[in-house]
What does this fold into?
Amino acid sequence: MKKNYSIIIISLLVVMVICLLYLLLKKKPESLTPKNIIATNEVVSITKTELSDSVVYEVIDNQKGLTYSWTFEKNEAINKSLKENMEIDVNLNLNVLTSLKNSELDSKVTNEDKLIVSFEHHGKLPSKAKISLNVNGKYKNGEKLYLYYYNEEEGQIEFIEKDLTVKNGKVEFEIDHCSNYLLTGSIVQDAVNNPKNINLIIIIMVVVIIVLIGATLFQNKK
It folds into this structure.
């Protein structure tokens, strides 16, 4: 009789262990739990992911056909400014355009491959942010881009960064304030603080050397 009781107890324990394992395996991963989803509807969805050293906000805008993300480093300033309400404090939405209404940008920039990144929030950010933008279909992988800032108050284009490489259909750049930015595969000729053109420098050096050689030969003939 005791042997039968032992078999029943062992059988119950086995069933309990199987049920426990089933419940554990059925549980959804933490990264997919609703608490990470800030906002979602048929048009826009925003997902927040906290990493050890940064906070990432991924945005999918179905209406505009855009996919991009914001990454903020975790530090005292960002924790104080953003806390859990970053999605309320700063509008995460942006537009990617080929022309900007009511501006002189089109007349100032004739580059046919330009993309204007216009943020709906305008102003200083609480911390530097890295923007990762899907540019697949506009630029090829491996292509190097220039980043410019459109200063509306001064009415001028200002150079920010070069050699932004397109990887996996995306380009990344850092900003500390939101406004209108410009991506292009070539230099904007009338921009302020443009990087020096190496080819132009080489040409100037060659011309200077030729002039010096000519002047030396002329002096020797005398």
